[in-house]
Amino acid sequence: xxxxxxxxxxxxxxxxxxxxxxxxxxxxxxxxxxxxxxxxxxxxxxxxxxxxxxxxxxxxxxxxxxxxxxxxxxxxxxxxxxxxxxxxxxxxxxxxxxxxxxxxxxxxxxxxxxxxxxxxxxxxxxxxxxxxxxxxxxxxxxxxxxxxxxxxxxxxxxxxxxxxxxxxxxxxxxxxxxxxxxxxxxxxxxxxxxxxxxxxxxxxxxxxxxxxxxxxxxxxxxxxxxxxxxxxxxxxxxxxxxxxxxxxxxxxxxxxxxxxxxxxxxxxxxxxxxxxxxxxxxxxxxxxxxxxxxxxxxxxxxxxxxxxxxxxxxxxxxxxxxxxxx
Length: 326
Prior knowledge:
Layout: E1 12-18, E2 23-30, H1 32-39, H2 45-62, E3 70-77, E4 81-89, E5 93-100, H3 102-111, H4 116-120, E6 122-130, E7 138-145, H5 149-161, E8 165-176, E9 179-191, H6 223-233, H7 237-241, H8 247-255, E10 261-262, E11 266-267, E12 269-270, H9 276-283, H10 288-294, E13 301-304, E14 311-314, H11 316-324
Parallel strand pairs: 5-12
Antiparallel strand pairs: 1-2, 1-10, 1-11, 2-9, 3-4, 3-6, 4-5, 6-7, 8-9, 13-14
């Protein structure tokens, strides 16, 4: 059916199809979930924005998994933000954390060097897909060389999936009644024609060809994909972040002349999978000597989850009993 106007909905990913253009995609709107993730850590605003971009990108990619799947986005770089980890547990549980050098972030802010590429620097982006069960675990790695996460996502799909893909990400703070709340939105479209021959690309330059050699021009990009990319490029950040603009309305604005079909939305929520049992299972893997070194002045082992900031106060005797039980 054509996209219809429905009450605005946050924390969901909406799959859609524009069949006249052979395009499939997903559009995400994150409100309370991303605000909870960011507020728990009290990150500086530029760090919060980059984390938000990573989370909404993960929601767009992870929401394609089956019910028991798991998707992880992880960056390791030499920039002021040296690591980001985002976990997506299907069907829609998100958690995230970041490590950064506070002094370098402050210096970057003073210098006005706070783009995503500048804050991440050089390193790599790893995208890990675990479909669960007997399915093979897959990881794709993209070099980060000062580009945005949008550009890194495009590179991933070019080299790993070989599917023409366009991603738009937006993160910002909404203000109301003196309060601040973070929001994030994202849009991903992919060109998936019935005939694979339509996913054509220009030939790569041979590199070692004789001087003066000019490669023959390829057949060019498919007109349907060119049109889809043009339409998506018109989306502005405020449209992805506006809580009064439903995802259905946004898709209708973009594709109404071609007809857009939406599917059942996928709800997402902030949810950490840490627990006392998981902490015990982790601790019992250490040697008795290492566990003894972890005991604090209060005679307990203190563990704080990096994702949700929840603190666990563990009795060493409980860990020893768990280790003895195997």
